[in-house]
């Protein structure tokens, strides 16, 4: 097993009476790890804690061997961190180059020449070299998202945190963004929050499912899919005993749960495994 | 063919030794100007130049040129800061401070003008109480508006950058105070009849700003300055009610009151320094 980039144990966080994180433990290794879960599952909170934006109430974690619990450790983590928030904000009058340059200054790249070379490098990496001089307010949503990714890639961070980067993108932009994330995941650790199983299926070597602030599954996408083996069936009517069921394009119903005797079993998908993992009764964490 | 003949007929070429010197950057004017002009029109000389140039140095030169062309053109304010000796990176950070934009400055000026108008139309030109009451609130408001999740679109990315949040806060605070105190100071000069009394806003202004910032980690970026501003108004109302003579100054603008303001300013600054690490994570209520 690779030495973990991130090692967290027992992370808990409350906002007032709301339990946002509940005893979360996980280890992240190089490659893209998907963080799946419905809205309100605690994905963004976990990402903010691991990105050192919000301190946890309880628990501890290290990133690349540094403890963000101390001021100096936090700074060391931040020097190795790339962070793309869920709704990245921009100074709209900045050009793409100016904005990434601004973030590069915040990332302590003080030498002007070296900083500008780095800005050019990351803009080329996200395929925005041709529009580097265009104002951000004139860029499309997909391009803005790529500008934010470029900003996250400044300084070649060892740990990249991406919070639902494909939300709001059209299918073509989404596919382009996935290619970029796959490229970014080569040689570094990427934690990708998403509620789209397609993102996980196409990008991730590992998936963590969260619900109600807790980890419900931690394993490979194949293992998550395998959890639904023998628990997916087709029927002409919605099965009242199913944990989830929906009408498919063929007109028949696809059901997930405990099949009745004689049910017509179907091949499981990652989405089926995800739905079952969200069910509290099926909570399980594998190695 | 003489050089003169060649020039006249447009068939002359730059001497190879001169081209070597040109490639090294060692050709002096006016031969440099001549070579510059000729090279733009002569493919033959450009070919020779390419042969005599060090390929790696040429590539590095192009890269430097590209980087320089891409580099953001600093605005007048940013350029002014750099010319005044402020570092390139700090100048860029300051240029992105919302409160330093023209609209913010305009708002400050507008508030001051309104104060004058009210004071003058009320027939109170010799009583600077209203000006002194409002002027300390301007730096407080300016600093409150320069930092925090509500007004800084890049707040989330800024918080997780290795640049310490307190350092960024101080850079912006100094910039805002310079503008706000400058505007107030100019207004003071416009009221020569008040004498030194017209400067009695300065210490309360510093006290309110320091206290507002010191309370921000505890109360949040909106409530803290609001509470401080409300307290200031309450103090002024109480002082007005307790004023012995109608023509006398309000207590905060007496020598004793100025002393209290000075002490509060020092205490606020001390608390602010004590709480400096609280500015390095998400502001209360922002997560």
Would you kindly provide a written description of the structure presented here, covering whatever features stand out?
The complex is a heterodimer of chains A (287) and B (287). With 287 residues, chain A is α/β, with parallel strands linked by helices. Chain A is 32% helix and 26% strand. Chain A has nine helices and 13 strands. In chain A, strands 5-6-7-3-8-9 form a six-stranded mixed β-sheet, with helices on both faces. In chain A, strands 11-12-10-13 form a four-stranded antiparallel β-sheet. Chain A has a three-stranded antiparallel β-sheet with strand order 2-1-4, covered by helices on one side. The model of chain A is unreliable at 281-287 (pLDDT under 50). In chain B, helix 6 (76-83) packs antiparallel against helix 7. By secondary structure, chain B is mainly α. Helices cover 67% and strands 0% of the residues of chain B. Chain B contains 15 helices and no strands. Chain B has helices at 3-9, 16-24, 31-41, 43-52, 55-70, 76-83, 88-95, 102-121, 129-134, 137-145, 155-159, 165-189, 202-219, 223-242, 255-274. The interface between A and B is large, with 42 and 33 residues.
């Amino acid at each position: 097993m690779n030495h973990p980039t991130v090692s967290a144990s027992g992370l808990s966080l409350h906002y007032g009476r709301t339990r946002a994180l509940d005893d979360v433990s996980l280890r992240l290794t190089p490659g893209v790890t998907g963080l799946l879960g419905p809205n309100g599952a605690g994905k963004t909170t976990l990402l903010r804690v691991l990105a050192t934006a919000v301190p946890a109430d309880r628990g501890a974690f290290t990133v690349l061997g540094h403890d963000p619990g101390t001021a100096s450790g936090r700074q060391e983590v931040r020097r190795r961190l790339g962070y793309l928030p869920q709704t990245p904000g921009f100074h709209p009058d900045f050009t793409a180059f100016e904005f990434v340059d601004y973030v590069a200054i915040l990332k302590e790249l003080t030498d002007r020449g070296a900083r500008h070379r780095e800005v050019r490098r990351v803009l080329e990496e996200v395929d925005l070299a041709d529009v580097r001089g265009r104002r951000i307010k004139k860029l499309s949503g997909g391009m803005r998202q790529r500008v934010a990714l470029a900003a996250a890639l400044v300084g070649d961070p060892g740990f990249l945190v991406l919070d639902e980067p494909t939300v709001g993108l059209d299918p073509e932009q989404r596919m382009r963004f996935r290619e970029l994330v796959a490229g970014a995941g080569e040689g570094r650790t990427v934690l990708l929050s998403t509620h789209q199983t397609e993102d996980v299926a196409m990008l991730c070597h590992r998936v963590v499912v969260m619900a109600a602030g807790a980890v419900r599954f931690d394993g490979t996408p194949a293992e998550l899919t395998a959890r639904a083996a023998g628990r997916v069936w087709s029927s002409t009517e919605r099965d009242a005993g199913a944990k989830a069921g929906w009408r498919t394009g063929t007109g028949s119903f696809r059901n997930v749960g405990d099949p009745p005797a004689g049910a017509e079993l179907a091949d499981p998908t990652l989405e089926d495994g995800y739905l079952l993992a969200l069910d509290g009764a099926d909570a399980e964490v594998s190695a | 063919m003489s050089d003169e003949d060649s020039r006249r007929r447009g068939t002359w070429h730059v001497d190879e030794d001169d081209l070597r010197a040109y490639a090294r950057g060692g050709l002096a004017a006016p031969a440099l100007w001549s070579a510059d002009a000729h090279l733009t029109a002569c493919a033959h000389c450009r070919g020779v130049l390419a042969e005599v140039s060090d390929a790696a140095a040429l590539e590095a030169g192009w890269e430097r040129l590209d980087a320089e062309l891409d580099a953001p053109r600093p605005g007048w304010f940013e350029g002014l800061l750099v010319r005044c000796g402020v570092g390139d990176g700090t100048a860029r950070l300051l240029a992105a401070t919302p409160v330093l934009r023209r609209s913010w400055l305009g708002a400050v000026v507008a508030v001051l003008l309104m104060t004058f108008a009210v004071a003058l139309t009320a027939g109170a030109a010799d009583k600077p109480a209203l000006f002194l009451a409002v002027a300390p609130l301007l730096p407080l408001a300016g600093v409150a508006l320069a930092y925090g999740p509500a007004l800084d679109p890049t707040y989330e990315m800024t918080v997780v950058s290795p640049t310490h949040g307190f350092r960024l806060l101080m850079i912006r605070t100094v910039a805002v105070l310079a503008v706000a105190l400058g505007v107030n100071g100019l207004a003071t000069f416009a009221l020569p009849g008040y004498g030194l009394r017209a400067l009695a806003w300065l210490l309360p202004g510093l006290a309110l700003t320091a206290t507002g910032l010191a309370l921000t980690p505890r109360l949040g970026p909106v409530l803290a300055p609001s509470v401080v501003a409300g307290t200031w108004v309450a103090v002024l109302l109480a002082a007005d009610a307790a004023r012995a003579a109608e023509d006398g100054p309000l207590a905060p603008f007496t020598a004793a009151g100025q002393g209290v303001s000075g002490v509060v300013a020092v205490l606020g600054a001390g608390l602010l320094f004590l709480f400096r690490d609280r500015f390095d994570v998400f502001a209360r209520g922002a997560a």
